[in-house]
Write a structure and sequence with these properties.
The complex is a heterodimer of chains A (about 100) and B (about 160). Chain A is mainly alpha-helical. Helix content of chain A is about 80%, strand content about 0%. By secondary structure, chain B is mainly α. Helices cover about 75% and strands about 0% of the residues of chain B. The chains are: A mainly alpha (about 100), B mainly alpha (about 160). Chains A and B meet through α1, α2 and α3 of A and α1, α2, α3, α4 and α5 of B.
Chain lengths: ~100, ~160
């Protein structure tokens, strides 16, 4: 693989790790979802850079577009869930969801 | 190459800011800035369609959805984040960056390049003819998302 690919791989790994750290350390539901978005950015960067390095950028673009559409669908559903959770618990704290009471 | 590296560094900085900033609105705007930089990176990698999607959908639509949710939930000021995380996060992240750089340096040139077939045609051909099954899956996912949002925001009747 070309040397450029390693540079992209380095930054994609940094993005995924930053997202994982956010998922582990944060308590706000919206913050957790922002961390998931950061991981998604790392993955799409990796997909496209691999396509770029392998001279198959068209297939990589098609995959990235598929990924983005799925991401939007996920975001819409997850944010609707977060709003419903807020209506129920009046809080965005993830620890409040541990109380499994009706 | 220098500009591309600068864009990638900016992308990582804005992404880390999006996670670390206390104000959710500023976090959402940082995430949009990161998406914008990623879109520019895509454009520079000769992937204009992916760049357009990244900027219009991720930097535009998803940011609007995030800001709408923050407005509807009151900004999440009631959540008390751990103070330890604000100290540990940058330290662990910098340690990871160092390890990441060392690993990439040692891997340099060691990952064998698989044979790549030459791509022919235009993007439209690859998307519509080469990835037909993906598109069916995409339509199913979009419909699932629409039905999920409709189900979550349905009006409650008197019997509920």
């Amino acid at each position: 693989m070309t040397n450029t690919w390693y540079l992209y791989l380095f930054f994609a790994a940094a993005l995924v790790f930053a997202g994982l750290l956010g998922l582990l350390g944060k308590r706000s539901l919206i913050k957790l979802f922002i961390a998931i978005e950061v991981i998604a950015k790392g993955i799409s960067l990796l997909l496209l850079s691999t396509g770029f390095a392998k001279a198959s950028i068209l297939t990589a673009q098609a995959l990235v577009i598929t990924f983005i559409v799925i991401e939007v669908s996920l975001v819409a559903t997850a944010l609707a869930l977060i709003i419903n959770i807020y209506r129920q618990t009046k809080s965005l704290d993830i620890r409040d969801l541990a109380k499994l009471k009706g | 190459m220098v500009l591309q590296t600068a864009l990638l560094i900016g992308l990582v900085i804005f992404s880390v800011l999006a996670i670390l900033l206390k104000d959710l609105l500023k976090s959402a705007i940082s995430l949009a800035a990161a998406s914008l930089l990623l879109g520019i990176i895509f454009f520079r990698m000769n992937a204009p369609y992916a760049g357009v999607f990244e900027i219009s959908v991720v930097a535009g639509l998803i940011t609007v959805l995030f800001i709408l949710t923050i407005a509807l939930t009151g900004g999440g000021h009631d959540v008390r984040e751990s103070k330890l995380v604000n100290w540990v996060f940058p330290l662990v992240f910098v340690a990871f960056i160092v390890i990441d750089a060392l690993v990439m340096k040692s891997l340099l040139g060691k990952v064998p390049a698989l044979p790549s077939g030459t791509e022919a045609g235009v993007f439209g051909d690859v998307l519509w003819k080469g990835r037909t099954l993906d598109l069916v899956g995409q339509i199913a996912v979009i419909l699932a998302g629409v039905f999920a949002v409709l189900a979550l925001f349905r009006k409650r009747d008197k019997h509920d």
